[in-house]
Design a protein that fits this description.
The chain starts with a helix and ends with a strand. 17% of the residues lie in helices and 45% in strands. The chain is built from one helix and eight strands. With 139 residues, the chain is an alpha+beta fold. It has a domain of 94 residues: Lipoxygenase-1. The protein has a four-stranded antiparallel β-sheet, with no helix packed on it. The protein has a four-stranded antiparallel β-sheet with strand order 3-2-5-8, with no helix packed on it.
């Protein structure tokens, strides 16, 4: 064997350390500050058309947006329609539907058809026995 294995290992280790400096500079993230996030813009309020269909006539109906009641009624039939004004951003809108049914009513369904301010149509259904308290997201 020629030379010392310990000396060769130290030489190889030294070369790796010398290569580590330029590699560290190349892979380091730039030290520039990220721009502050833009303030969130509120979507303008738009008129949306709600069409509700029930399988059992409810005794009470409430619709909320962000905890604020936007429609409350005592339904007189199985089909209801209402136009409400709520912000409708591109991400969509969450609406809470709360319906109470008469005692002893069978399993009931609520079909919600929503027409957004751009004319897009969306439909969702929720079920409940005695009452429905559901948050539906419309894109």
């Amino acid at each position: 064997m020629r030379g010392s294995p310990l000396l060769r290992a130290l030489l190889a280790f030294g070369l790796l350390l010398l290569l580590a400096l330029p590699i560290a500079r190349l892979t380091r993230a730039p030290a520039t500050a990220a721009p502050p996030p833009a303030p969130a813009e509120r979507a303008p309020a738009g008129e949306i058309q709600l069409a509700l269909t029930f399988t059992v006539q409810p005794t009470q109906l409430r619709v909320r947006h962000l905890g604020r009641e936007i429609w409350a009624t005592v339904p007189t039939g199985l089909d209801l329609e209402q136009t409400v004004s709520v912000p409708f951003p591109a991400e969509g809108v969450d609406l809470e539907f709360e319906a109470k049914f008469p005692a002893g009513a069978p399993l009931a369904a609520l079909r919600v058809r929503l027409t957004d301010p751009t004319g897009g149509k969306h439909e969702q259904t929720c079920w409940g026995r005695g009452e429905i308290d559901e948050v539906l997201t419309f894109p």
